[in-house]
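tool_call predict_complex ligand=C2E
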Amino acid sequence: MNKLNIYDFLQKQILMMIGLSLFPGVAYIILGWLNNVVYPALIWYGLMVIVSFFGWKLYIYDLRLIGKEDLSKWYRSVTLYFYMIFGLWTLIFILYADESESHLHYIAIFTQLGASVVASTILVSDKKLFFPVLLILMVPLVGYFTLIDEWYGYVLSVFSVIFLGVLLYSSENSYRLIKENYYQAQHDSLTGLYNRRYFVDYIERMINRIEYSKKFAYVLLIDLDHFKTINDTLGHDIGDKVLIAVAKRITDYCGKDHVVSRLGGDEFTILSPEYDESVNCQEIAYVFSEKLLQRLKEPYHIDNHNLYLSASIGINGIGNVDIGSRHFIKEADIAMYEAKEQGRDGIIIFNDELAQRVKQHLEIERKLYFALKYDEIVLSYQPQFDANENIIGVEVLVRWDSRDFGLLMPNEFIPIAEKTGLIIELGNFIIEEAFKTLQEWEEKGIILQQYSINISVRQFFHTSFTDEIERLSKKHLNEECRKKIIFEVTETILIEDMDKIVTAMDKIRSLGMSFSMDDFGTGYSSLSSLRELPIEELKIDRSFVGHLGEYESDELMITTILSLAKIFDLQTVAEGVESQQQYDFLLENGCNIFQGYYFSRPLSQKKFEVYYYQFMKVQKPLFED
Ligand code: C2E
Ligand code: MG
Ligand code: MG
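tool_result ok
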């Protein structure tokens, strides 16, 4: 149990103790008055009021706002308060214990025993305080019984000692139970680090404190890179051991000053101590993170495996800002994701530019809901050519013609739609519009061999995906057209089980449609996944095509992809073909289909139609959108 819990618990007990002292105290005055000992009782009650007032001041203290030193001072005062208040109860016991004629001594003995029970209940969380207080209460009682100097007095004093033992024993048990409960509620069972709940609670307190003390601190959010691969390839047992080893490295590195917690999965956080305004907190955080990252990257030896890990770290400063804890965590999270996006194994400090981007994302997120309603989602069609430079297909590409932002490209809003879940509605809309266009073209004599539609991961795995495709295709497409549909998915679908992917794909394929692996080579598909996936086409990512002639490695990459495709009997599409040289290289190496600005940019439906008719007549692709 940590100090803050003890302090919290103790603070709540102060009020109860004040009540338990002042109200029964009045009865003592009355009893004193009835038995002619009112003056000592009044003096005693006066002292009780003073001590209770002192206790009240401690009770109303906002513990969230005070720093470590003040907190220790507060605790010392609380200890003093409890000593004084129980000391006063012993005092009244000593005063009344002698009043045997008026039988007040019975009441004194009873209250002293009562006070001991009260003390063992309310001070149970603090062993250091509880033990001396109990002695203050019980020793005079034992002494009193002994001093009677009669056989029953000795019996009572032995009983009192036994009673003291029972109280100590039972409170020790309760203490252990409370400690265990607190521990479980605040710790992560796997690593023994603090859990998310404790972390959020702690950071909230820290923010309150910092607002008041004007100090600075920082929070670090650490996410291991590709941890899922360890779990998937070596099993969860090893994965758990890695997490334990990582947790140990972090705590060893951080020492006692920092608060380390595991938020869940492979995500850890570190909260720094509080610094004065004069130090450069950001610099400290960065240097701290760099060294930590180095430590985390040292090899792990787990069950005969040598494992190498890296991590992405997001840093956010805390101080001088009036926002809640969740924002600080969220901002650190954004910084961490930025580190991931920049290639992982890195450190990013949350900054104004990121904040601005987040703001814009939020704006886009908010307005995207209305994009469909306002009819602002439009489709573009980029032609695809075969080796004889005939148009054989198109790729459908979405745009958002927003009244607020102008024309937005998919990269600017698809990831946001994915995150919010709007991709389902948006994706279904795109598919339906695309199906309608294809059917319309068939009727107009624009005959294509294939028709590619991009599908995002979340959309692909949504429970309604296959049913929706079935419904829409039956509504808009005849059997011939259905066979032309190719759904482009990226390697990110491989985050799910192969069985699940194959089941979903097979269902769609039973409708006559097929699949293409988009942006191939940028993700992490393995040879075995290529063999297992029921796909018909590979699309070589435009980043390789774009660097043809610049890097030999990209040429090698392309020839390798093309040979792989041959092995697995897959059709190949090169995207992003921008020049004659690129086209020639791809053609020479056996690529089947070509798409890119060299032939045509993506075109609106109307422009594509004009382009198609012109092209079929003059065979010269010179159209620019
Ligand atoms: P993608 O599927 O790889 O699409 C190809 C992207 O390359 C398109 O960008 C296209 O305009 C661009 N491109 C084509 N030829 C060239 C070229 O010669 N040079 C260069 N530099 N670029 C070329 P766009 O339209 O901005 O789309 C970006 C990505 O957004 C797409 O990449 C796809 O992943 C996603 N996307 C587009 N439409 C949809 C959609 O309807 N649904 C979903 N889920 N994602 C979509
Ligand atoms: Mg695509
Ligand atoms: Mg692509």
